[in-house]
Every structure is written in C-alpha cells, then in structure tokens.
C-alpha cells in the first residue's frame, strides 16, 4: 500500500510540478484491507483511485485543488476501521472511501453519521464503492453515504433480466452463503424470477456456512441431479471459486451466475474450467467497446500494476462524479458537494451514471459477462478474458430498483 | 469396629491382566501409627493410591471412620479427613513455601472456593500457616519459591502440605526417601510430632524409621499382606524373614 | 441411491486427504507431544512448492520433490526453532507453532502473491474417467484415492515391517522409553517432524489442485485437521484414520440432507419459520466436525481410539 | 498463642510493604489515567487509548486463564463478543426508553457485560472445563468456531454481517458525562479500566485466585488438599469470561457496534499474542502487551505493508528467546539496576543491544525489500538515501553482514552473562 502510494506519487510528481499553482489538497481517506489475505481486494481498488486522482489532478484538479488519496489499512475489521476512521478525520480527510465488507461499511456509516451529528461544521462524507447490502440505500440510508456500486438487488435485476430472455433456461438453482448477504440474494432471486418468468422452476434454494466448505462436489451433485439449467449464487472468495471449480470438474457446462466472478485470482484458480461456466454481473469489463481514452487507461493500469487487472471502473466514476459535483457546488465542502451530487449525471466509461437523489444510489448500466479465450484483454495474467454474452447489456433503468429510503437531510 | 480409623476389606486392583493388589484386609485403629513394608513392586504405592482415591479399586471396600470412601474422588476423601503425601515431591512449584502450605490450610478452614475474601486478611489462615511452618522448621524459608528449596526441604514441605489441612488420618509415602541420616532423624522427629494424636499410615524403606515409629507393621508382598503385628512380632515372624527381611539381609538393599 | 454413491465416493476421498494431513500430525504428536499448529501451513507449502516445480519440470517430478522439500523445511524448523522451546513445555511449543503458522502465511504471500495461483491438474489426468448419474467423474479424484491408499500402505509397511518403524511404534506406546533405547532422541525428533511435515506436503501437492492453491488454504484446512486428530484420539494413527473417514463421510452426506431442524424437532413445537427451525442439516454440515469435537471430548476425552489424556 | 501471633506478624508483609507493593501502584495507575487528558490528546490518540483500555482488561482476563490457571484458550473473544453484544442490545433498549431501561445509565454498560460474560462462561465452561491442557485448548477452538458460525446464522441476535449498532448518547447523562465527545468516553474507559484492573488484581488475592495458581502448577496435588481442580478451573473460567464481558461493555460504548467478526478466532488469536508478548507470568505483563500490541496493530500498518510479518516475527521471537515477555525484561532490568549490579552487566548489555539492533537492521531490510519485490511495482526501498534494490549486491550486504555480526555479538553477550552469573 505504501509502496503503491509512492509508486503512483512518483509518476504524479510531474503532474504536481505542472500544476504547482494548486496550493490545497483534498484528502480522501481510503480505508480498506491493505495487508493480509484480503489485501488482494483492497490494493487494486486503491490503485484505481490513485490513478483516477492522478488523471483528475493532471487535468486541472478539483476546482483547482489536488486530490490526495491517503491509504489506511483496516484489516477488514469493523473496530479497527473505526480507529483508522478517527485517524483519517484527525488528519484532515473529509471524504472516506471504503468498499470491502458490509460489516465495515455499516460501521463506517454509523460512525460517520454520529460524528457529523456530534461535530457540526466538521462533516465527513462516505463514498462506498463496493459494499452492496441493499439496506444501505434503503431502510438504513444516510445523507452522508453515497454508493457507487449497484447493490445486490440491482445486480440480481440484471441477472434475472438476462435469464428471462433465455427461453432455454427452465430450471434455476440458487445457492449461497448462510448469512445476510446470501439470504438477501436468494430472496431477491426468487421474487424477481417469479415476476419475470413465472414458468421457471426453482429446483433448489440452499445456504451453506460461510467460508467453511472445502469440497463442493456434493453440492454440485445436488445441482446436477436437480436438472438445473442455470445457477445463481452470491458467493464470494473461496466459496465462489470452489463451487465453480467443482462444477467444472464434474463437466457441468451451465451458467453459474455470480456477483464476484471478476474478483482477483478467480479465473486463474479455475483455468479453462471457467469458460462458459463462470458468469459475472458488473458495471463493465475491459473487453467492452469503449473510447480510446478508456483503452489507454486500461493499458496504463496494467503496465503500472502488472499484478492486478483493471477492475474497479467505479473508482474512476466515483472521483469523476466528485469532481463534477465540486465544480457544480463551487466548493469542496462535504455538505455542498453532497447536495450537488444528488441527481448529478456523469458520462462513465460504459454509459451514463446518475446519482439518485432520494437514496444516494448510483444508477448505471450493468453487464452480464462470461469467461472466454482470445479476448482483447486477459485477466489474472492468463489468456482468458471476460466477454459480453448475448443480451448481457442491461440498461440502468432496467437494473434499477425502487427504494424505501426516508432520508434525513441537514438544513 | 468403632475404634477403627481405616478399614480395608478384600481390596483388589488389577491393571489389565496384572493383579497388583490381591485381596488386602487391614484394620487400623484410631491413633495408631501403622507402617507398611515390602519389597519394591509389592503394591505399596498402589495401595496408597487406592486409599486416597487416586485409583478406583477393582473390587473390595475402604472405610474411613465408619464411612465408605471407596469410589469417591480424592478431594472428597480429603475433605472427610484423610490426607496423603507423595513419594516424589508433589508441590506447587511456582508458588512460595508459605503459599504452598496456605493452599493446604484453606479448605479445612472453610474458605473453599471463596472469591470475595482477601487472603491476606484471613488472620486464622495466616496464623495456622505460620504455625505449621514454624513446626516443620521452614519458617525462615517461607518466602522462597518452592522450586528453589533443597531436596530435603522439599520433602519437608511435602509433609507440611499433607498435615496442613488437619486431617485425622495421614498417609505418608516414603517420607525420608533420599535423605541423609541427619535429615532422616529430623524428619522422623517431625513426623512423630505431627502425627501426635492422629492416625498414621506410612510406607517406608528405612527399617530404622519403621521400627522406631510404628505401633504396628504390615508386610505387603505381591499384593498380599502376609503378616501384621507389632514390630517385635514382625521381627520374629519366620514368614516375613523368609519373604522379605531375609532377602534384604542378604542383598543389603531391597531390590 | 445416487446421492449415497456420491456421498460415499467423495466422502472417502475427502477423508483420505484428511487422513494424509492428520497422519503426519499424529506422528509428530505421538513422538514429541507437540500439537503442531502450523501443520496445515506445511500442507500449503506442499501445494506452492509443487506449483513452482511444475513450471520448471512436470507434475510427476513435483509429486516426489515437493514433499521432500517440505520435509526439509520441517526439519529446519524443528532443529532451529522447536528444539529451543522444547524444554519449556507443551504450551510454549504449541504457541511457537501458532506463531510459525502466521509467519509461513506471510512468507507465502511474499513469494507467490496474495491471490490464488493457477496450479493445474496434470494434463495426463485431466479427463473425465466415467460418467455417474449424469455427472462426469474426474480421473484426478481417483488418482488422489490411489495416492492416498498407496501412502496408507507405505506407512503401514514402514511402521510394522521396518526397524525405524519399530522404534517409532515403541515411542508411540511408551514415549518416555525412547531415550533409554540408546537412540539419538533429538535426531529422531527431527526426522519425525520432517516426515510428518512431508506427509502434509504430499497432501498439499495432490490437494492443492483438487481444491485451490491460495494463501488462505492453510487457515481453511487447519482447524479441521485438529478436529480429526483430537477426535481420533491424540497419538493414535488408527483413530486418526477412523476420525478422518467419519468426518469425510459425515460432511459429504450431511450436505445431501435437506431436512431442517423444524422437521426433526417439530414435535417439540419448533416452527419452520423461526430462525432456529429454519436451519437445515445441509447448512450445518461444515459445522458438524466441530460439534463432534466438543461432544467427543466431553464424553471421551481420550478421543475415539486414544489412550492418552494430555 | 502469643508467639504464633508474632510469627504471623513476621511472615505477612508489613503495612508499609503492602502499601508500596499493592496500593501505591494502583494510585500511580489512577493518577496516570487522570493526568493523560491534561496533555490535550487528539481524538486519534483518545481513540487509540480507549482501545488500549479495552484491550488491557481483555488481555488481563485472558491471562486469568493462561497465566494464572494454565488454561490455553483459542476462543476468548467469544466472551468479549457475547458481553459486548448484550450491551449493544441494552443500549438500544435504553435508547427506546421502555420500562425500567430508560433509567439505566449507559455508563453502567460494563456491569451488564460482566454479567453476560459470566453467564456465557458458566454455560460454555460447563462442558469445556472438564478437561485441561491440550483438550481444553482444542475444545475452546471448537467452541469458538461454533459460536462464530452461529453469529452469522442468527440475525436477530447478532445482526448478521452488519452487526448491531447502538448510540452511546441514547441514555441520560451520568456524572456529567454525555458520552458524546471522545473526552467523555475516555473518562468512562479510564474508570472501567481501573475497575477491571483492580478487580482482577484483587481476584489474585482471594483463596480461589491462589488455588487457580496451585491448579496450574499441580492439579493433582490440589485434589489431595480438598479441592476439585475441575471446579477451580470452572470458576476461574466464569470470572475470566465475566471480565472479558466487562471489556465487551467498554467496547460497546466506545465503538457503538458489534459484529460477528468480534466473536471469531482472529481477535482471540490477537489477544493471545498480546498477553504472551507482554509476559504471562506477571500480573502487569498483559497490560504492557495490550498497550504495545494495540499501538502496533493500529499504527505499524502506516509505515509498512509487512506489519503482520513483523508481528509474527516478534511473537515467535518472544516465544523462543524471551518467554517472560516485555514484563520479564522490564522487571529483570529493574532488579539488576536496583540490585546495584548494573556495572557488571553494562558491557554485555551494550553488546547485546548492538547485536539486536544489527539483527533488526538486517531483518527490516530483508522484509522491506522482499515486500517491494513481491509487489512488482518496481519500487525501491530507500532508507537514508540508500537505494536498496532486490537485485543489487549492496542490499544483500546490508542483509547478511549485520545479521552475521549481530548473531555473533548476541552469542558473545550470552557467554559473557553466563560468566557473570556462574
């Protein structure tokens, strides 16, 4: 992380030299795992934010000020995150970036709301780039929280939209981790499928304990026996890779529709077994059609950080939107920026993105993709890459879900 | 039977196929000092372990002051008034001498598992501990960690812990083993003083100590008591001479 | 029927893999009294060594070299680490291996990165062997079965038929006696620790591509291996074998039971809609070994086959 | 009787000694807690110190088991977690203000945590304390896995992944503390840290506390002085759980959230490391360990990506070479200085320090260079203007030479000290 920071800053020195007139910097605290096993999720995100900040600074900054991304390692622990949050706030950061783990996000939302209530004039905003529990922009929504990733229900909307278009899918199996996230995924899948394709039979709906299963073969056997044509899972980490690996080993060639298939190392672990088996839904993959600038960005990223792939497109969207909001508000004060951000639309790499005012949930296009050989960009340093499937482009409107948010706004 | 402090009835113990104790019957009167002698491997320590509850008997019964104690746990037997020492020093190594003795005192003074009292304020406990330390001659070393004590002092501490609880029946397992002559003499004096008015059962190899101390002696050979009687009777018993003393006379030290 | 067949087949394979891991741990424990907390870390090292060796050579060479390398690493750890804390008792040793597990985790991340590596099944074995009830059965699994059985036979032969085995056997039943046999005890300890680690390494070589080779694999496998050796009875190889099979079969077959607690305890008035009632046996499957551990230790502290309570 | 009384007076420490050994440290501790806010610590410092307070109580409660009763637990966080969860629920009841809850001050949370921790200890300890040694350690591991899994399964109790949060300002003021600003929370934590430390120290002075040490040393002999070692362990376990629950109550107010992660093996392992590094044979050891490890855990990661590796190295180093931990070093040093032997050992100490410093230079260089090489960004470790690239000869000189030199010096120092003592 520190090394990352210096690596990026080394290149940023030139940019700063050019824009030496910028006196102020806007500190953004990046609070996510940067050591231990989970660092493989935190590091690429940090790099994405730094690269995004670097480009914004090089193009004149935010109202003339530079963005500085300051990393804080939270070890994916909610309690430790609160220590780091306090450190960040005391060092002058007014914007918090975090995404890994809904437990951490929930702790930060709570802590930020309390901090802002207890320390008026010193407000802090929380930009959540990956924690996808729907509650954060529904019943537990907060004025101080903005989410730049589609939440579970929206991603499920995209998945079920795609499934609905596929007439050959008649039986669906749902499997997930036995905790809130897995339960929410299962509930959303059942409800949405029933509405969009009542003829689809849900042949299995099953939860297994979180991160405890070593051999998924028996589960896959159940899936095979059920005659399922597609599997929907909210699994992440080993639970996702091991599940799909067991399916590939059993020679099963049906879509495993996941939220986290694009995580680092998943394709490497699965190898060719992933082809046409591992599907993911995301706000974009590198092999989608895009502008030359976007391709240049992807290539710059890969060249600078060869260990990882360009994955967190939403990091760029987050900072772009912040830039636009600050410009619109003519200020970098959190409350002003927050108000300016509501309803704001920016042109992201893979389509327009709008920050919905009522719940602070970004509305953006989603894409269902699968693993294939010989793509423009491979991932995990293999020759396998993500390819858009037929009918896999889901518009922001289609992916959108209504909100139950009743937000309390400051005067 | 009223006068009996300890009674063993047809006591047997086997470890797998090995029959270590094969039907021991023994009565020990209140206030009696009783010694058990016998060659190594005769089952003397096993017998102690059975009486004190460390092992469960295979069959037979043990009675203490009219209560059956066979089948009870060691701490239950201890609370009923029987205390024992060990052949190998079995003390609380990381605590001081004073703390060691105090651990022996606490339960009998009614402080059981108390967690609401400051041990330093328990005046009777401190007094009793000090008195015992004084008696056994360890008072000067009261604040030393037990591990730092010389061997003979550790043996003494072993006895001190055993008598600390004020049990009426005391079992001593080779209390003078490994001691020099002068140390042994001191230990015997201590045992005499400490067992005054109490029932004492002692296993000992040093015949001098045995014949000095004991009112009665039992000879245990291959898990059976072949003779019981006063020191004179035992000395004169031909069976004993043949089975045990004879051997010893010839070989010097029991094998 | 098909679920039974699959549960049996997979349960046996998983059980054998568990046994491979736990046999090394049991050997070490029997001889040295050390419950090696870092045992699963050596399993991980086996997988990573094999992955690296495969880049320069092939799987078959890795299959033999990687466990040897892991064994050597184990010997170094014993000689320069464990031996120093040996005098201070088993808790110190347990804590040493606890810290060692942390260190190995971190070092693995430095050398092989934080994400999974592409440790592939060798092409020779990468084909479906047969089709069973509609699912292809990978040949590699049968290969695991064979390797595990081979190791079982070799271990049995070594222990029952060789001189080294006799010494180890003697040590298993009479741990305090080995020193009196006139053998160089520190040397034996080092060899046994190395051998135990090598067995874990072998399990890593064949398990790493069956599952996933990533830095979390040690943490994932660690607790379950303890459960196996403790349930089986610390120090008993037979016990470890029975426990490994039991847990392998239990876990795989429980997965196929969809009954919920409400179905079972419904007569007590437990509703299927309540939080407790809604839990299915299948969802509890991975927790069963831990439940088993607690239950076995409460009822039979020596474990199923053990005769020593530590 | 009279001479008995005199011996009694002789044996027990004098009033002055008692004051110096027991009361004075407590007064100094209370003073230190009271003086800290005068320096005007930042909110970051306050947050860090509050966590230190929580961890001090937690580490001490862990050491009631490991250091005092010889019970190695791999799942002690279960009791902090359950105590804390209960407090978070209570805080929400207080905020709702229904019934008698409205009258309960949030300040009293640790008392609720204490009760909940004791209850959890009583329930879980019943089966697990029937065994000692390795089986106990393994049962604690199994129980921790089960409870952590349950944490994710029962949403209504544990709130699932997001956990359950509460507002510490939900109740009415108590002692003039709203508990809103961190300064208020500091006083709250300081008060309860003091209560916890004094409470656990007092426990060591009770008959049960002494018996727990006796059971650690020799469980068999305990049976023959009338005690059931299982009962002793069980009671100690309940108290350890209770004080962990107290720490949980402190944490509930400081962080205002509890998540199932708090129940898992990770915090249990962390507190084991903290207590051990501090020194489990001393009452104050875990206090020192908690302070050092809390600081390192939150701040070391600002300086290096390899902080976990450093912690691991430190732990293994302590287990191998300094089994009495930080406290052992501190008291050992103090004994030598106060015993007037400083001159004799000064030379070998200097050599030892130099040796350690050299080893540290070598280790840090190796770790830092290794992490940069592993990241693959082509970044170079540049201490003091030196460019230490993993491929350059200089790097390897900086790694190998100080290491060899340091090892040599340490060996020499050990030899020199042996001569002094023999």
UniProtKB/TrEMBL annotation, chain A:
GO BP terms, alphabetized: amino acid transport
InterPro entries linked to this entry: BCAA_transport, Leu-bd, Leu_Ile_Val-bd, Peripla_BP_I
Keywords: Amino-acid transport, Signal, Transport
Signal sequence segment: 1-23
Domain of life of the native organism: Bacteria
UniProt entry tagged with the keyword Nucleus: no
Gene3D superfamilies (UniProt xref): 3.40.50.2300
Pfam families: Peripla_BP_6 (PF13458)
Residue ranges annotated for the Leucine-binding protein domain, each copy included: 25-375
Sequence similarity: Belongs to the leucine-binding protein family.
Protein name listed in UniProt: ABC transporter substrate-binding protein
Source species: Pseudooceanicola spongiae
Taxon lineage: Bacteria, Pseudomonadati, Pseudomonadota, Alphaproteobacteria, Rhodobacterales
From TrEMBL, chain B:
Keywords annotated in UniProt: ATP-binding, Nucleotide-binding, Transport
CDD domains in alphabetical order: ABC_Mj1267_LivG_branched (cd03219)
Gene3D superfamilies, per database record: P-loop containing nucleotide triphosphate hydrolases
Molecular function via GO: ATP binding; ATP hydrolysis activity
Domain ABC transporter: 6-247
Family annotation (InterPro entries): AAA+_ATPase (IPR003593), ABC_AA/LPS_Transport (IPR051120), ABC_transporter-like_ATP-bd (IPR003439), BCA_ABC_TP_C (IPR032823), P-loop_NTPase (IPR027417)
Keyword Nucleotide-binding: yes
Sequence intervals crossing the membrane: none
One GO location term (cellular component): plasma membrane
Protein name listed in UniProt: ATP-binding cassette domain-containing protein
Organism: Pseudooceanicola spongiae
Automatic annotation (TrEMBL), chain C:
Subcellular location: Cell membrane
Topology in the lipid bilayer: Multi-pass membrane protein
Top-level division of the source organism's lineage: Bacteria
Any one cellular-component term (Gene Ontology): plasma membrane
InterPro entries: ABC_transp_permease, BCAA_transport_permease
Family label: Belongs to the binding-protein-dependent transport system permease family. LivHM subfamily.
Name of the protein: Branched-chain amino acid ABC transporter permease
UniProtKB/TrEMBL annotation, chain D:
Keyword flag Methyltransferase: no
GO function terms (MF aspect): branched-chain amino acid transmembrane transporter activity
Predominant subcellular localization, coarse grouping: membrane
InterPro entries: ABC_transp_permease (IPR001851), LivM-like (IPR043428)
Protein localization: Cell membrane
Record keyword Cell membrane present: yes
Pfam families recorded: BPD_transp_2 (PF02653)
GO terms under cellular component: plasma membrane
Keywords: Cell membrane, Membrane, Transmembrane, Transmembrane helix
Protein's recorded name: Branched-chain amino acid ABC transporter permease
Provenance organism: Pseudooceanicola spongiae
């Amino acid at each position: 992380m520190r090394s990352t920071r210096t690596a990026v800053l080394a290149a940023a020195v030139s940019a700063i030299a050019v824009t030496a007139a910028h006196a102020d910097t806007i500190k953004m605290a990046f609070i996510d795992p940067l050591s231990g096993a989970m660092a493989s999720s935190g590091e690429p995100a940090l790099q994405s934010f730094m690269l995004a900040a670097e480009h914004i600074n090089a193009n004149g900054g935010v109202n003339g000020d530079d963005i500085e991304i300051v990393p804080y390692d939270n070890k994916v622990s909610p309690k430790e995150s609160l220590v780091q949050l306090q450190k960040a706030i005391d060092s002058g950061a007014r914007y918090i970036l975090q995404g890994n783990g809904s437990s951490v996000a929930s702790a930060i939302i709570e802590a930020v709301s309390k901090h802002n209530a207890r320390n008026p004039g010193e407000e802090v905003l929380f930009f959540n780039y990956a924690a996808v529990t729907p509650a954060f922009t529904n019943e537990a929504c907060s004025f101080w929280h903005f989410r730049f990733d589609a939440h579970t229900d929206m991603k499920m909307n995209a998945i079920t939209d795609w499934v609905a278009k596929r007439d050959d899918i008649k039986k669906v199996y749902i499997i997930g981790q036995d905790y809130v996230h897995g339960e929410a995924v299962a509930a959303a899948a059942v409800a949405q499928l029933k509405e969009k394709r009542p003829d689809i039979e849900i042949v299995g709906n099953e939860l297994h304990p979180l991160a405890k299963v070593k051999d998924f073969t028996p589960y896959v056997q159940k899936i095979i026996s059920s005659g399922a044509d597609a599997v929907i899972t909210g699994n992440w980490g080993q639970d996702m890779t091991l599940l799909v690996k067991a399916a590939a080993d059993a020679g099963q060639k049906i879509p495993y529709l996941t939220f986290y298939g694009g995580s680092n190392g998943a394709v490497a672990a699965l190898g060719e077994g992933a082809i046409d088996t591992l599907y993911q839904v995301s706000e974009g993959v590198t092999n989608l059609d895009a502008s030359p600038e976007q391709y240049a960005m992807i290539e710059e990223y890969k060249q600078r950080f060869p260990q990882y792939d360009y994955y967190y497109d939403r990091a760029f969207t987050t900072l772009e939107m912040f830039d636009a909001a600050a410009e619109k508000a003519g200020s970098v004060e959190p409350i002003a920026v927050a108000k300016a951000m509501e309803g704001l639309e920016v042109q992201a790499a893979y389509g327009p993105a709008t920050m919905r005012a009522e719940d602070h949930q970004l509305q953006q296009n989603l894409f269902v993709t699968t693993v294939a050989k010989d793509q423009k960009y491979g991932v995990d340093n293999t020759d396998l890459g993500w390819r858009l499937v037929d009918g896999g482009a889901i518009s922001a409107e289609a992916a959108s879900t209504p909100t139950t948010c009743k937000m309390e706004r400051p005067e | 039977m009223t006068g009996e402090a300890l009674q063993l009835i047809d006591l047997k113990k086997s470890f797998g196929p090995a029959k270590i104790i094969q039907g021991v019957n023994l009565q020990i009167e209140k206030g009696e000092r009783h010694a058990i002698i016998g060659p190594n491997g005769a089952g003397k320590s096993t017998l102690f372990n059975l009486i004190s509850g460390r092992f469960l008997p295979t069959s037979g019964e043990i009675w203490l002051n009219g209560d059956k104690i066979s089948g009870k746990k060691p701490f239950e037997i201890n609370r009923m008034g029987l205390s024992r020492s060990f052949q190998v020093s079995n003390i609380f190594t990381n605590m001081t001498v004073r703390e060691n003795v105090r651990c022996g005192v606490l339960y009998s003074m009614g402080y059981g598992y108390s967690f609401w009292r400051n041990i330093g304020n328990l005046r009777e406990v401190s007094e009793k501990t000090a008195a015992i330390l004084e008696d056994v001659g360890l008072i000067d070393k009261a604040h030393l960690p037990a591990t730092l004590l010389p061997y003979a002092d550790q043996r003494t501490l072993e006895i001190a812990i055993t008598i600390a609880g004020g049990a009426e029946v005391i079992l001593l397992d080779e209390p003078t083993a490994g001691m020099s002559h002068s140390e042994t003499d001191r230990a015997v004096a201590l045992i005499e003083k400490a067992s005054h008015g109490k029932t004492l059962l002692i296993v000992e190899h040093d015949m001098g100590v045995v014949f000095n101390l004991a009112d009665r002696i039992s000879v245990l050979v291959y898990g059976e008591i072949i003779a019981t009687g006063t020191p004179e009777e035992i000395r004169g018993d031909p069976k004993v001479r043949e089975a045990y003393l004879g051997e010893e006379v010839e070989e010097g030290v029991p094998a | 029927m098909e679920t039974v067949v699959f549960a049996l087949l997979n349960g046996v394979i998983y059980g054998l893999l568990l046994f491979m891991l736990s046999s090394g741990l049991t050997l070490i424990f029997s001889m040295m009294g050390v419950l090696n907390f870092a045992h699963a870390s050596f399993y991980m090292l086996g997988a990573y060594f094999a992955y690296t060796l495969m880049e320069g050579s092939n799987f078959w060479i890795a299959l033999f070299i990687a466990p040897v390398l892991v064994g050597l690493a184990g010997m170094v750890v014993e000689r320069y680490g464990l031996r120093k804390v040996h005098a201070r008792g088993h808790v110190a040793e347990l804590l040493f291996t606890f810290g060692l597990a942390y260190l190995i985790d971190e070092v693995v991340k430095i050398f092989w990165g934080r994400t999974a590596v592409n440790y592939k099944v060798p092409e020779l074995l990468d084909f479906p062997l047969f089709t069973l009830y509609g699912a292809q059965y990978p040949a590699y699994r049968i290969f695991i079965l064979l390797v595990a059985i081979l190791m079982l036979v070799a271990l049995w032969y070594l222990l029952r038929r060789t001189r080294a085995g006799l010494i180890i056997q003697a040590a298993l039943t009479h741990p305090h006696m080995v020193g009196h046999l006139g053998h160089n005890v520190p040397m034996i300890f080092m060899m046994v620790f190395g051998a135990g680690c090598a067995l874990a390494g072998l399990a890593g070589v064949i398990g790493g591509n069956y599952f996933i080779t990533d830095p979390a694999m040690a943490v994932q496998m660690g607790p379950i291996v303890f459960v196996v050796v403790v349930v089986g009875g610390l120090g008993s190889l037979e016990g470890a074998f029975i426990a490994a099979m039991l847990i392998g079969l239990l876990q795989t077959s429980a997965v196929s039971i969809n009954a919920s607690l409400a179905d079972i305890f419904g007569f007590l008035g437990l509703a299927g809609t309540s939080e407790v009632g809604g839990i299915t046996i299948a969802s509890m499957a991975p927790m069963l070994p831990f439940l088993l551990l607690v239950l076995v230790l409460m009822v039979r502290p020596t474990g199923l086959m053990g005769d020593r309570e530590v | 009787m009279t001479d008995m009384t005199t011996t009694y007076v002789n044996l027990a420490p004098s009033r002055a000694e008692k004051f110096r050994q027991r009361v004075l440290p407590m007064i100094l501790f209370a003073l230190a807690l009271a003086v800290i806010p005068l320096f005007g610590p930042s909110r970051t410092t306050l947050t860090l110190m509050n966590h230190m307070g929580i961890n001090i109580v937690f580490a001490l409660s862990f050491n009631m088991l490991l250091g005092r009763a010889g019970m190695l637990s791999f799942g002690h966080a279960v009791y902090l977690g359950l105590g804390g969860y209960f407090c978070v629920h209570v805080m929400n009841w207080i905020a709702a203000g229904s019934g008698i809850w409205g009258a309960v001050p949030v300040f009293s949370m640790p008392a609720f945590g204490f009760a909940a921790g004791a209850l959890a200890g009583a329930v879980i300890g019943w089966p697990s304390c029937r065994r000692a040694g390795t089986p106990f350690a393994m049962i604690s591991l199994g129980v921790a896995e089960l409870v952590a899994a349950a944490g994710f399964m029962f949403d209504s109790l544990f709130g699932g992944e997001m956990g359950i949060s509460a507002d510490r300002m939900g109740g009415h003021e108590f002692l003039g503390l709203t508990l809103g600003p961190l300064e208020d929370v500091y006083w709250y934590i300081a008060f309860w840290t003091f209560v916890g430390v004094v409470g656990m120290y007092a426990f060591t002075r009770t008959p049960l506390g002494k018996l727990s040490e006796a059971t650690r040393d020799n469980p068999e002999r305990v049976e023959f002085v009338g005690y059931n070692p299982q009962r002793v362990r069980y009671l100690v376990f309940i108290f350890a759980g209770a004080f962990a629950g107290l720490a949980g109550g402190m944490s509930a107010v400081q962080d205002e959230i509890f998540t199932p992660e708090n129940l898992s093996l990770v915090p249990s392992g962390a507190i084991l490391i903290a207590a051990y590094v501090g020194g489990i044979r001393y009452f104050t050891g875990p206090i020192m360990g908690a302070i050092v490890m809390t600081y390192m855990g939150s701040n070391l990661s600002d300086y290096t990506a390899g902080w976990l590796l450093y912690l691991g190295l430190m732990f293994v180093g302590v287990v191998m070479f300094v089994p009495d931990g930080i406290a052992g070093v501190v008291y050992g040093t103090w004994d030598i200085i106060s015993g007037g032997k400083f001159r004799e050992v000064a030379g070998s100490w200097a050599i030892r320090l130099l040796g350690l410093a050299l080893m540290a230079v070598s280790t840090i260089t190796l770790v830092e260079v290794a992490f940069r090489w592993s990241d693959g960004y082509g970044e170079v470790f540049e201490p003091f203007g030196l460019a230490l690239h993993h491929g350059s000869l200089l790097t390897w000189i900086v790694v190998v030479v100080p290491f060899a030199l340091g090892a040599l010096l340490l060996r020499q120092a050990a030899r020199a000290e042996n001569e002094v003592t023999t």
